[in-house]
Amino acid sequence: MYVAVKGGERAIENAHAWLAEERRGNKDIAELGIAQIREQLSLAVNRVMAEGSLYDPDLAALAIKQARGDLIEAIFLIRAYRTTLPRFGASEPVDTGAMACDRRISATFKDLPGGQVLGPTFDYTHRLLDFKLAADGEVPDAPARAAETGDVPHVTGFLNREGLIEEARHDDTPPRDLTREPLEMPADRPLRLQALTRADEGFTLGLAYSTQRGYGRNHAFVGELRIGAVPVEMDIPELGFAIEIGEVTLTECETVNQFTGSKTEPPQFTRGYGLVFGQTERKAISMALVDRALRWEELGEDNVGAPAQDAEFVLYHADNIQATGFLEHIKLPHYVDFQSELELVRKLRREAGVDQVQEAAE
Q1: pTM value?
Q2: Residues 6 or more apart in contact with residue 272 via CB below 8 angstroms
Q3: Structure confidence at residue 356 (pLDDT)
């Protein structure tokens, strides 16, 4: 506990009170509600759910409010709360091929079954401040639309029919659970994907960008990016079959990457994969690029020493909660450590005669 400051525990209590006052802000302005954050800051809510490993929009909105908009602090709150929850089972793997798509685009095939669905996106906006929003004006309703439902085949399936892309590998071995056991090396692909899906968005984006700039020689196309709701099913032993217990919104990205072939594989395209809670497409694309870069050894490629190819570097530094904890601990009292360092430097200076020379010069 931070009791070395003047006042001890009372100082800490006062700091908490001051924090609450700052969080509330000017009381002449209406307080921000959880529902407002959930509905109007949904992309922030989605990021907190994804990196907090807990799908609950209301709790994510509460965490954002409590953290004064600091998303990493909000993610920390969600992670901490998650550890208190009982675990009573596991869901079946979700079928993204049956996603009710609000957005579905491909940079590789223009004509898709069902067409390209632009959905709610910033891609075609002019990035100009809209001062109408400052006037609190009502936004007109968008034209009526329906999410694409039923069987929505993945674009990579078209390439797979001709044998132009690697077969998706299926392994029934239960993957290690990163939320229940610490990360250990070497990490297989399922474990890497778990780490990447809740990795810090900015860190993952930076790594993905580095692969595009040549640090990994990994040029990719977005085979498909889709956003929508998928049902979640859970097997009930007493019933003998799985039942639907709800649905979650996911962002899925599959990249198509060049591959010249190896001794055992013919020239073909390879895959990168990203799957994230909510509408989080920048993160999903970044995740897919980094996933592909980390597969260099599996595919028999050269390691050019790029950061995104180093699994230990990527996975041990991608978690923003671990990074935050280690970084911010240095602002806590280290008086004893510093005093020992101080005495050591003074001793070295005396032995080198530095202090005597300075005193003589003065």
Answers
A1: 0.84
A2: 220, 253, 254, 255, 257, 288, 289, 290, 291, 292, 293, 295
A3: 60
